[in-house]
């Protein structure tokens, strides 16, 4: 016993062998103390293992917090190795569509074909979905035959134990870790995964936030580029519009000069669609010596007095054609209220509004001296 052999045996010499009894009691106490010492040492080793693991995985989480896929893959591979496990998967909550929330496989290790075919799991579906709903650890050693197989180069075999831990913070679920092994998990290993799960949940939350921020940034950049393109298109359109306006201004200026020349050298009158005079130019007034107000408001028929022009063209048909949008010409003997008459070669122009509907008719006339002479003969 003095040399540390606590398993040696001693036989009492008699019922009164007090020294022997004391030695046996001392041996039992030393055994109990040794067992307690080993238990405390084992606990200390387990605590150190957990603390060291949390520290190591803290570094892994900090280095891979931008991409959820990279985070999950690096974390899972290291966790399988640290636990000396054989299979695993990390699922993250996908709540892109609030009406259709599900668990999405982010990373896997040694999953069989059946597991890889079901990368999206509904909440409440199977053990993983149940864990996400109940938000409690599931540990089983009686794995169903049809549940999963651990795939390796040697084939596929059923795991002995499954550890499924929710990734949650303050009862808010972010995902699930599933670990399979051919041997049982020790309680301190389960405790370690549960402690690690909160850090993983926090990092997943940050990673998803970073991914969302990146998506928003990319979307903003695309919108900025699109806006820039639109601004460039608008600038080009404005330049084209300015050029068009300048061209219109030039054409309008030339048209004004032309119209001024026409108004100065021609007899111009305007009619509404009812064939009533609504305007005449100054040259008309000066030539016929009749006040403008005695001409404006009078119907066309008051000035011609017959049904056809001098070329035999029926006025009724001419007006139908004009109001249909077709310009016409005529040779007319126009008689005014003071008895003055003019033989005019007239060009009739229908004027449409912005919708293409004829709203007035303009007539540009010149005196036909030859026709007047022939008419006098």
Structure description:
This protein has 377 residues and is an alpha+beta fold. The protein is rod-shaped. The longest helix is centred in the middle third of the chain and has 79 residues. The protein starts with 17 loop residues before the first helix and ends with a helix. The strands form three sheets. A six-stranded antiparallel β-sheet has the order 3-2-1-8-7-4. The chain is built from ten helices and 13 strands. α1 runs antiparallel to α2.
Q: What is the tally of beta strands?
A: 13
Low-confidence segments: none
Percent strand equals 15-25%
> Mean of residue pLDDT?
87
**Oligomeric state of the chains in view:** single chain
The percent of residues in helical segments reads 40-55%
Q: Report the biggest beta sheet as strand number plus sense, adding barrel if it closes.
A: 6 strands, antiparallel
- Provide the gyration radius in Å: 52 Å
Instruction: Give the SSE string.
Output: HHEEHEHEEEEEHEEHHHHEEEH
N-end to C-end Cα span: 166 Å
The count of helical stretches stands at: 10
Q: How would you write the strand order of the largest sheet?
A: 3-2-1-8-7-4
Q: What characteristic shape results from the CA principal axes?
A: rod-shaped
What structural category arises from helix and sheet content? alpha+beta
């Amino acid at each position: 016993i003095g040399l540390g052999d606590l398993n040696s045996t001693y036989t009492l010499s008699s019922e009164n062998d007090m020294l022997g009894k004391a030695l046996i009691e001392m041996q039992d106490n030393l055994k109990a103390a040794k067992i307690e010492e080993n238990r405390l040492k084992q606990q200390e080793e387990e605590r150190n293992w957990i603390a060291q693991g949390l520290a190591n995985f803290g570094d892994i989480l900090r280095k891979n917090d931008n991409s959820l896929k990279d985070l999950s893959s690096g974390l899972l591979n290291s966790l399988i190795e640290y636990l000396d496990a054989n299979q695993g998967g990390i699922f993250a909550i996908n709540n892109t569509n609030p009406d259709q929330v599900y668990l999405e496989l982010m990373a896997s290790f040694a999953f069989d074909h059946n597991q890889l075919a079901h990368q999206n799991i509904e909440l409440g579906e199977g053990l993983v979905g149940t864990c996400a709903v109940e938000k409690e650890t599931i540990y089983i050693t009686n794995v169903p035959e049809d549940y999963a197989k651990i795939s390796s180069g040697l084939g596929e075999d059923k795991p002995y134990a499954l550890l499924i831990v929710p990734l949650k913070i303050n009862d808010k679920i972010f995902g699930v870790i599933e670990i399979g092994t051919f041997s049982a998990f020790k309680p301190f290993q389960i405790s370690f995964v549960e402690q690690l799960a909160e850090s993983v949940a926090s990092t997943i939350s940050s990673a998803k936030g970073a991914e969302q921020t990146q998506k928003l940034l990319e979307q903003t950049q695309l919108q900025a580029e699109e806006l820039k393109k639109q601004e460039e298109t608008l600038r080009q359109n404005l330049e084209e519009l300015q050029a068009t306006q300048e061209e219109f201004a030039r054409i309008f200026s030339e048209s004004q000069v032309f119209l001024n020349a026409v108004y100065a050298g021609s007899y111009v009158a305007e009619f509404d669609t009812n064939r009533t005079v609504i305007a005449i130019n100054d040259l008309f007034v000066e030539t016929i010596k009749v006040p403008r107000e005695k001409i404006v408001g009078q119907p066309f028929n008051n000035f011609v007095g017959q049904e056809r022009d001098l070329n035999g063209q029926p006025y009724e048909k001419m007006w139908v054609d004009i109001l249909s949008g077709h310009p016409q010409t005529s040779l007319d003997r126009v008689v005014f209220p003071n008895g003055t008459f003019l033989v005019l070669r007239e060009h009739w122009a229908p004027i449409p509004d912005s919708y293409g509907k004829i709203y007035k008719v303009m007539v540009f006339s010149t005196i036909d001296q030859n026709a007047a002479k022939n008419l006098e003969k």
